[in-house]
Write a structure and sequence with these properties.
Among the domains are: 252 residues, no CATH class; 71 residues, no CATH class. 73% of the residues lie in helices and 0% in strands. It contains 28 helices and no strands. The longest helix has 43 residues.
Length: 649
C-alpha cells in the first residue's frame, strides 16, 4: 500500500483488528525509536515475526472477505510466522548462549520461518530475490558435495544452518533486521504520517509555484513534486502511484503524449531515493555498513541528487521548447500567499526542517526521526486549533480534531503496511547475504572480477554498474544495493576509491535499476496508470533520463561533487558537471537552443563526454565545444525562433 492510499475500507471486526495490529506495529517502532530498542533478538524477533506474519494476515482486510481453505491457510501461515518471531524474542537469552543447543521446536520453527520469509518476499517484491535466496540455501547446505575446486564452500550441517539463520543474530535476525527495525522503520512511519496529514497537496502546489510558469510547466511540476515527495517516501513505485495519479493526467491535458508523460513521472520518481534529507532505506544501511553518520551520506548525496533532477528538468524543458508546450495557465496557478499561509505548509515543511537540523546536529537518525514524528503530529493538531480560532470557527474544533485523528490513524495503518514489506525484504536479503559471507562466494567473485578486469578502475565501474542493474531487476533498490555492495564495494575500495564514493556509486545504480528495462518497477507503474505500452514508456524514460546514467561516473572522477574539497573546487566542478548533463539531455531529446540534426546530437555527446575527465585541457575543450554550439545558435536565433516539432520515435 502506498502512503497516499486511504486506510482499508473493509468493515467488520477482522479487518478492524488487522488495522489495529498494523497501527500498533507502527506505534511500537515510534516508541522504541524514542526510548530505545529492546535487546537485539527481542526487537528483531518482533520486527521480522510480525512483519512477515502480517503479510499473510492482511488477507483479512479484503472488502469481500469470504472464508475458504486458502484464507485459512494464509491465516495459519501468518500466525505461525508471528509465533516463530515471538519465540525468538521470548527465548533470546537461551539462544544467545553459545553453550545452548537448538531444541527440536527451535529447529522446526526455523524451517517454518525460512519458508514463510521466502513466500512473504515473493508476494511483496516478486520472485527474483526469493529464488536467489533459495539457490543460496541449496549451495549453503549441499555446495560442498556439488561444487569442487576453488569455489567449493565449506561443509555445513543442517543444524548449523538452522542455528545461523534462526537462532542467532547472524541470519534472518542479523544486522539488516537491526537496521530495519531500529532506523528504517521510524522513517517509513514518518513518511506515511506526513503524507496522510496533508503534505502531498502542499508539495504539489509548491512545485507549481516553482516551475509551473516555465516552458513545459506541468512536466516540470511533476519533476519537482517527485523530488519533494521522494524525500519522505523512499520508494519509486510509491512516488509514481501517489504523485503520478495527479501529474500524469495534468501533463496529458497540457498536450504531452501519454508515453512521454508517464516516462517523465517514472524518471523523476526513481530519483526520489537519493534526495536528502530522507533518502531510501539503502542509505541507512550504507551508514551502518560504513559506520559513519547518516548526515555525512546526506551531505554527499546533495549535488548528485540535484544533478539527477536537473537532467530530467533539462530534458523536459528541451522537449517542451521543441514542441511548443506552454506553461500552466496563470489563472490555474496557486497564489504564493495561499501556499505560504496554508495551514498544511508548516505541517509539511516544519518536520522536514526539524529532521534536517537534528541530523546535522549529530542526533542519531533513529532519535531524529522519532522527534520529527512527534513534531509532525503536534504541528498538525496545533495548526488546526490555531486556524480554527483565528477564523472564528471555534465551534468546529471538535470536527477538526476528529479529522486530525482519522488522518493520524490512516498514517499509522499505512506506516505499518509499509513496514511489513520492509521486514520481508530485509529478512529474505539477509538469507542471501549470510550465505555469501559464510561460503566466501562474495569474496571469490570479487577476486574473479579483479582478475578479469586487470585492476582497471573504469572497467570495474562498468561491470559493477551492470551487475547492480541486473541484480536490481524485479527487486527493490535496497536489495540491489545490498547484494552488489557485498560483492563489488570491496573491489572498488581496493582499487583506490573512498568507501563512501564506492557505496554511493553502487547505490545510485541500484536506484537506476527501477528505470532500466526489461524489468523496471517505476516504468511499469507509470505505464499502468495511463494504460500505455510498457516498452514505449520505457523508451521515453530512458530518453528523458539518459543523462542520469553518467552522473555516478562524474562523481567518481570529480569527487568534489560529493562535497570533498574547497568551496571553489566544489562550485567549479558542479558547474562543469551541470554543463555536461545539460548537453547530454539536449542530445538525447534532439533539441539544444534549437533542433538538432543527428550529427549535431553526436557532436553534443562528444562535447559533453570531454567534460568527464577532470583536467584543465579537457574542461576547456568541453566548455568551448558546448559554448561554441550555444554561440552559433545565438547568432542564428532569428532563424531558430519558431519551435519545431520533433518526430517522436
Amino acid at each position: 500500500m502506498s502512503h497516499s492510499e486511504e486506510a482499508p475500507a473493509a468493515t467488520g471486526w477482522l479487518p478492524a483488528s488487522m488495522n489495529i495490529a498494523l497501527a500498533a506495529f507502527a506505534v511500537f517502532h515510534i516508541y522504541t525509536a524514542l526510548l530505545g530498542s529492546f535487546d537485539p533478538l527481542i526487537q528483531r524477533g518482533i520486527f521480522i515475526g510480525c512483519g512477515v506474519g502480517f503479510i499473510f494476515l492482511r488477507q483479512l482486510q479484503a472488502s469481500n472477505l469470504v472464508w475458504s481453505w486458502r484464507l485459512g491457510l494464509n491465516v495459519a501461515a501468518g500466525l505461525a510466522a508471528v509465533y516463530a518471531g515471538l519465540h525468538v524474542a521470548a527465548n533470546d537469552t537461551r539462544l544467545m548462549d553459545i553453550m545452548s543447543d537448538m531444541t527440536p521446536l527451535d529447529n522446526a520453527l526455523a524451517v517454518v520461518m525460512i519458508v514463510l520469509v521466502l513466500e512473504a518476499a515473493r508476494r511483496t517484491i516478486g520472485a527474483s530475490l526469493p529464488i536467489m535466496a533459495s539457490l543460496a540455501l541449496i549451495v549453503y547446505l549441499f555446495g560442498n558435495s556439488l561444487i569442487s575446486g576453488g569455489w567449493q564452500p565449506p561443509r555445513t550441517s543442517l543444524e548449523t544452518a538452522l542455528m545461523t539463520m534462526y537462532g542467532s543474530t547472524n541470519g534472518i535476525f542479523g544486522f539488516m533486521a537491526d537496521i530495519g527495525t531500529r532506523v528504517i522503520a521510524i522513517f517509513v512511519v514518518f513518511g506515511s504520517l506526513l503524507i496522510a496529514l496533508g503534505a502531498g497537496d502542499v508539495f504539489m502546489r509548491a512545485a507549481a509555484l516553482i516551475a509551473g510558469r516555465s516552458y513545459g510547466g506541468p512536466a516540470k511540476v511533476a519533476v519537482v513534486t517527485s523530488a519533494l515527495f521522494g524525500t519522505v517516501s523512499g520508494s519509486a513505485v510509491a512516488n509514481v502511484m501517489s504523485v503520478g495519479s495527479i501529474t500524469i493526467p495534468m501533463m496529458i491535458r497540457a498536450g504531452y503524449r501519454k508515453d512521454f508523460a508517464a516516462g517523465v513521472e517514472a524518471s523523476a520518481s526513481a530519483g526520489g531515493q537519493i534526495m536528502p534529507p530522507v533518502m531510501g532505506a539503502g542509505a541507512f544501511i550504507m551508514a551502518e555498513l560504513l559506520n559513519i553518520p547518516y548526515a555525512t551520506i546526506a551531505v554527499a548525496a546533495v549535488l548528485p541528487a540535484v544533478l539527477y533532477f536537473a537532467a530530467i528538468y533539462f530534458s523536459v524543458d528541451n522537449f517542451a521548447r521543441a514542441t511548443n508546450l506552454r506553461p500552466i495557465d496563470r489563472e490555474l496557478m496557486p497564489k504564493f500567499r495561499d501556499v505560504l499561509f496554508d495551514r498544511n505548509t508548516l505541517v509539511a515543511f516544519g518536520p522536514l526542517l526539524t529532521l534536517a537540523y537534528l541530523l546535522f546536529q549529530n542526533y542519531t537518525p533513529t532519535l531524529a526521526g522519532a522527534i520529527a514524528t512527534f513534531v509532525l503530529i503536534g504541528l498538525a493538531a496545533a495548526t488546526r486549533i490555531f486556524y480554527g480560532l483565528w477564523e472564528g470557527r471555534s465551534n468546529e474544533l471538535g470536527a477538526e480534531m476528529k479529522t486530525w485523528a482519522r488522518q493520524v490513524w490512516r498514517g499509522l495503518v499505512d506506516g505499518g503496511s509499509g513496514l511489513i514489506v520492509i521486514a520481508a525484504l530485509l529478512a529474505c536479503a539477509s538469507i542471501l547475504v549470510t550465505v555469501l559471507n559464510a561460503t566466501g562466494i562474495g569474496v571469490k567473485f570479487s577476486q574473479l572480477l579483479l582478475g578479469l578486469t586487470g585492476e582497471h578502475l573504469f572497467v570495474v565501474l562498468i561491470i559493477s554498474a551492470v551487475l547492480c542493474t541486473l541484480l536490481g531487476m524485479d527487486v527493490p533498490t535496497t536489495a540491489s544495493y545490498i547484494l552488489t555492495a557485498s560483492v563489488a564495494a570491496p573491489l572498488l575500495i581496493k582499487l583506490g576509491l573512498a568507501p563512501l564514493t564506492a557505496h554511493l556509486f553502487i547505490f545510485y545504480f541500484a536506484i537506476l535499476s527501477a528505470l532500466t528495462p526489461p524489468v523496471c518497477a517505476s516504468v511499469y507503474a507509470a505505464a499502468t496508470l495511463v494504460n500505455e505500452n510498457f516498452w514505449k514508456v520505457a523508451g521515453q524514460a530512458l530518453r528523458i533520463a539518459g543523462g542520469v546514467y553518467f552522473i555516478p561516473f562524474l562523481f567518481i572522477y570529480r569527487p568534489e561533487l560529493l562535497m570533498a574539497g574547497s568551496v571553489a573546487a566544489i562550485v567549479y566542478n558542479f558547474a562543469v558537471a551541470l554543463m555536461a548533463i545539460a548537453a547530454i539531455s539536449g542530445a538525447s531529446i534532439g533539441y539544444f537552443f534549437g533542433p538538432l540534426a543527428w550529427y549535431m546530437r553526436l557532436y553534443l555527446y562528444v562535447a559533453s563526454f570531454t567534460l568527464f575527465y577532470p583536467s584543465w585541457t579537457s574542461d576547456v575543450l568541453g566548455i568551448c565545444l558546448v559554448g561554441g554550439l550555444v554561440a552559433v545558435r545565438f547568432v542564428r536565433s532569428q532563424r531558430l525562433a519558431v519551435p519545431l516539432k520533433v518526430n517522436e520515435p
